[in-house]
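Record pair follows.
FIRST:
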Amino acid sequence: MHAAVSDCFAKYPFAKGTAYQRFNCIYQAHFHYGPAAMGPQYNLLLQIDLASLKVGKDVDSGILTPEEGRRALHWVTDKAYLQASQPAWAATQPKRN
């Protein structure tokens, strides 16, 4: 799986016109190898992949510059990491102001 994802990075640079292809390639690799290769966070990683596809489309269409796309990707992955690293009980607790 890692080789397949690495090929995606090599084949499709993160630039206008190739961003969506890059993230679609990564999504397809993750989907192909499935939960056994991806581990317990498989569903969360697929959500990140789908959000990345949206960012890729926005970069390719010119809605976002590549730099704005990078910032959006960092936001998506940071948010996913925080969500995944919180204990399950924390998600059910009311938020404090």
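SECOND:
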Amino acid sequence: MTEQEKDLLIQLLTKFTSLTSQEQQNENLLLQAKADVEKQLGTDLMDTKIDDSSDGFPTVMTMPQMAKFLQIGISKAYEMSHWVGFPAVHIGRQVRVPKKALLKWLEQQKYQERLDEAQLQIVARKRR
């Protein structure tokens, strides 16, 4: 693992886990934490191709790319990047969003929306 990969990995892992400075120095612990994050995101962060699909969007998107992908404004994309649970990775002032993690997040939102609707219907029935 190169120093650049190690630094990037530490930044990514900091977003999803809490590493002590001792753990950041131990490469074996870094690799284990990387595996844990990949399991959580459902993707291999270091071994994916830059553009692995024919949809024209890279595996890891910038905010303008994500805005275009979701067909929303750039301001809304940046706002979303600060939402709790949103799969954005902040690297300094830069923000990146893994496409697979974004798609997984969107599916979870769809499921949560259906659950909320069902709960509202139950409450409405009880009021009758």
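COMMENT: Residues 99-127 form the longest helix (29 residues).
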